[in-house]
């Protein structure tokens, strides 16, 4: 299985299964993905092979960590990311995998930002901790 940008310059070969698939409804993921939510699949570093050039963008998270996005400098597609919270994992944008049979999210986070018409399939669970962290950060 693989993930790639629109032009094919940035390519990620996925050598093993994902440890988790998460739908995130925070405003940063909405803006990063250009859609009402982002869907990200977590892979161990050793099961990912990245080829091509990527541009890195780092931002702080609402919980005090960091989130790095890597995108193609030619076409602008986000292909993968890294989180300070999970330094041994690479996070792949599920849309870059472009496989309609890819597993659905098992968790849904930052749901206070979820658009009213979005429905995440069961058996995903929501994260009340994310809601509490956001309230503490006054975001």
What does this structure look like?
With 139 residues, the chain is mainly β. It contains 3 helices and 11 strands; from the N terminus they run E-E-E-H-E-E-E-E-E-E-H-E-E-H. It has helices spanning 27-33, 94-97, 128-136; strands at 2-4, 11-14, 20-24, 38-44, 48-51, 55-60, 66-71, 78-83, 86-93, 107-109, 125-126. The strands form 2 sheets. It has an 8-stranded mixed beta sheet. A 3-stranded antiparallel beta sheet has the order 1-2-5. It is globular, with a radius of gyration of 15 Å.
Short description:
With 139 residues, the chain is mostly beta strands. The protein has three helices and eleven strands; from the N terminus they run E-E-E-H-E-E-E-E-E-E-H-E-E-H.
Mean pLDDT equals: 85
Query: Would you tell me the structural class of the helices and strands?
Result: mainly beta
Radius of gyration: 15 Å
N/C terminus separation: 37 Å
Strand order of the largest sheet: 6-7-8-9-4-3-10-11
Number of strands: 11
User: What oligomeric state do the depicted chains represent?
Assistant: single chain
- Number of helices, where a helix is a run of at least 4 consecutive DSSP H or I residues: 3
H/E element order: EEEHEEEEEEHEEH
Query: Which term fits the overall shape?
Result: globular
